[in-house]
């Protein structure tokens, strides 16, 4: 046993904080990605895709609600899902930087979605056996929805990648510009290490290998090229975001910012 | 002391009440048909607990259902019953009762089918029977339909569009 170990009835504040941060990161990523997809409503290229993106957004926001409610309880400061979603500013958000990137064209939205669907698939499958049974229950529910999401996004990746020259060039361009953000997906820090040691979360390195294999398989089918690794200066999970998140939040939190404390 | 007979009677009363709460999106189905009601039971202190589970994490009907169940319990004289959310095991479309499948079909929604995959293999779309004409010649228009639980299909025989209740 490590020197860090505490008696069972004596909670370790650093461990509790890491647990809160871990669940908050998952919840924030789902919330931010769900909000981005919601921006498509009424603007998608076809009615079916408009409904599809809205359905994905609903699932993601539903998952975010379960995760943020739980994160608030772990934090123990009385913040509920709404307080966490609407009463924090950008540096307090802990989502993956990729999730907050603007929608761009349909191809760019699909590439962002597909990279994150494949990531969520690994995370949720890895959490199924978590020592944290509540997180395991949320993952068991979410993983079934995420399989549908991945089928949707990888299906479109193939149609666009293996479609016309124009659609191919656009999704390859989107992939080239978004790829740098993928470096953050499995970059482990103290939070991940603590969660892994407590058998709450799976090992990021193992997930990264499986994610990478899935990505290569989809890219082959879509006739797209995997870009080279690029330097990565942002860490959304630690609150270091691109400028895009702040703009997104001003819209998402508009009502609470204008009328603080207002209830629906 | 809890009287076993009285307890069984109360449970039956509550279950009968719940069987009359409709799903807000598909009102021909009750929440019992959908498999949303997970338990009706009494704890050691004599308090009654009703457990319900969401279908999809993001299903907007979940909130409406919670309010409808609370209202039904209060109006039925069970204001003391505790309403709780159950997440595990996660809801699956296999929990739809056989009555629910028949009602869905009569309503024009194809019930979830075992995934016999289309020979076209277009992203493994399952073959779905048209709820109107019974033809197996149908095609998927969109994986996502009017609600999270439904996909959008079209019958190649009678040309009618229809909803398919997805397997989850």
Mean pLDDT across every amino acid position of chain B: 88
Order of helices and strands of chain B: HEEHEHEEEE
**Which superfamily, in CATH terms, is the homologous superfamily of chain A?**
Ferritin, core subunit, four-helix bundle
Order of helices and strands of chain A: HHHHHHHHHH
- By oligomeric state, this entry counts as heterodimer
- Secondary structure: helix percent of chain B: 10-25%
| Count of all domains of chain A | 1
CATH architecture label name of chain A: Up-down Bundle
The biggest beta sheet of chain B reads: 4 strands, mixed
Concise structural overview:
Chain A has helices spanning about 15-40, 45-75, 80-85, 105-125, 135-160, 165-180, 190-195, 205-220, 245-250, 255-260.
What are the SSEs and their pairings?
The complex is a heterodimer of chains A (264) and B (168).
Chain A: H1 13-38, H2 47-75, H3 81-86, H4 106-127, H5 133-161, H6 165-178, H7 190-197, H8 204-221, H9 244-252, H10 254-258
Chain B: H1 4-18, E1 37-42, E2 48-52, H2 61-75, E3 82-85, H3 98-107, E4 109-110, E5 138-142, E6 150-155, E7 161-165
Parallel strand pairs in B: 2-3, 4-7
Antiparallel strand pairs in B: 1-2, 5-6, 6-7
């Amino acid at each position: 046993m490590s020197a860090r170990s505490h008696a069972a009835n004596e909670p370790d504040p650093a461990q509790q904080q890491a647990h809160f941060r871990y669940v908050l990161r998952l919840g924030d990523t789902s919330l931010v990605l769900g909000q981005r997809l919601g921006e498509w409503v009424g603007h998608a290229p076809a009615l079916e895709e408009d409904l599809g993106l809205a359905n994905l957004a609903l699932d993601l926001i539903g998952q975010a609600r379960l995760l943020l409610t739980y994160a608030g309880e772990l934090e123990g400061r009385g913040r509920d899902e709404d307080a966490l979603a609407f009463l924090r500013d950008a540096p307090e958000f802990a989502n993956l930087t990729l999730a907050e990137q603007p929608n761009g064209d349909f191809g760019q939205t699909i590439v962002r979605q597909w990279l994150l669907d494949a990531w969520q698939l690994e995370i949720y499958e890895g959490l199924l056996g978590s020592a944290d049974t509540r997180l395991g229950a949320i993952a068991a529910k979410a993983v079934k929805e995420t399989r549908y999401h991945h089928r949707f996004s990888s299906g479109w990746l193939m149609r666009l990648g293996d479609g016309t020259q124009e659609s191919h060039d656009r999704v390859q361009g989107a992939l080239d510009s978004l790829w740098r953000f993928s470096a953050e997906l499995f970059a482990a820090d103290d939070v991940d290490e603590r969660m892994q040691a407590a058998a709450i979360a799976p090992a990021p390195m193992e997930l990264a290998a499986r994610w990478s294999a899935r990505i290569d398989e989809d890219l082959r089918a879509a006739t797209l090229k995997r870009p080279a690794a690029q330097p990565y200066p942002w860490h959304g999970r630690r609150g270091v975001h691109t400028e895009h998140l702040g703009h997104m939040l001003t819209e998402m939190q508009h009502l609470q910012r204008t009328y603080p404390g207002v209830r629906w | 002391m809890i009287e076993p007979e009285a307890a069984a009677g109360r449970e039956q009363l509550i279950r009968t009440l719940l069987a009359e709460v409709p799903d807000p999106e598909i009102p021909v189905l009750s929440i019992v048909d959908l498999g949303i009601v997970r338990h009706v039971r009494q704890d050691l202190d004599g308090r009654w607990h009703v457990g319900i589970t969401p279908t999809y994490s993001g299903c907007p009907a979940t909130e409406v259902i919670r309010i409808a169940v609370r209202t039904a319990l209060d109006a039925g004289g069970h204001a003391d019953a505790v309403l709780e959310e159950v997440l595990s095991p996660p809801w699956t479309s296999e929990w739809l009762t056989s009555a629910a499948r028949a009602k869905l079909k009569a309503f024009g929604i194809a019930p979830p089918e075992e995934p016999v995959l289309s020979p076209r293999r277009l992203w493994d779309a399952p073959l779905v029977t048209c709820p109107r004409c019974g033809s197996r010649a149908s095609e998927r228009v969109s994986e996502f339909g009017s609600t999270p639980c439904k996909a959008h299909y079209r019958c190649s025989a009678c040309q009618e569009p229809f909803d398919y209740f997805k397997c989850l």
